[in-house]
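Review form for a predicted model. The reviewer records the input and the model, then writes brief findings.
Reviewer: anonymous (R2)
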Amino acid sequence: MHEEEQAIDRFLQELYESGVRRDEQTQENARKLRNITPSTGRFLELLIEEERPQRILELGTSNGYSTVWVGRAAAAVGATVDSVDQNAERHQEAKQNLVAAGLCSHVRLHTQEIGEFLAENRQQQYDMIFLDTDRRRYAQWWPQVRQIWTGKIVVCDNATSHPDEFQPLLEILDQDAWLDHGVLTVGRGLLLIRQRNEARPTGTFVSLEVPGQAGEVI
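Model under review:
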C-alpha cells in the first residue's frame, strides 16, 4: 500500500507539472486546465480523511487532477465521488488519469452542464461538495447546492485569487443563520462552509483564516 501511495504521489506531481506547462503555453483561457495547487489537494485529502463523508460531489473536473486527490481520499474512507464537467474532451483526459491512478471504481464522471446536473439530481444527498468551476455562477447555483447537501462541508477554490467573484455568494451565506463560513489561505484560497447545529444572528462572518501566503492568481 505504501508503494501504491508513492506511485500516486509521483503521478500527481507529474500531472501537476504538465498542467502548469500546458497552461503557460496556452493563450486561450478556455483551454487552460487551471488545476488546484498541490497544497489544496493535500488539504482536501486530509479534510476527507477527517470528516469521512460517504458521498462527495465535485463540480468542475477539468483533466481530473483534483479528482485524483479527492478520489484517493474517498477510497481510503470508503466514500464515492461524483464529478461533473460539461467538457467532454476534459472528461476523457480525467478518465485516463483516474485509470492511471487506479481510482475509476471510486469516481463517476458526469459530462453535463452543472446547472442541469443539479436540477436533475435534486433528490440526491452529498456530505461534501467541492466547487472549482465558474465562480460567477456559484450564487445562482447555491439554492440547488444547498438542497442536495447534508450540511457537513462545502469547499470552494480560488477564494483569495478571485475574491470579487465570491461576493454574491458571500452575501447569500451571510444571511443564512444556519451556516458558518470562512476563508483558509491554502493554495489560491479556500472558502469553507459548514452547517451549524443552532442558528446564529445573520450577517455574522466566522473567520477561518489562518496565517500563510495564498497561491498565485491565475
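Findings: Residues 204-218 have pLDDT under 50 and may be disordered.
Further findings: The chain has one domain: 2-195.
Recommendation: see findings above.
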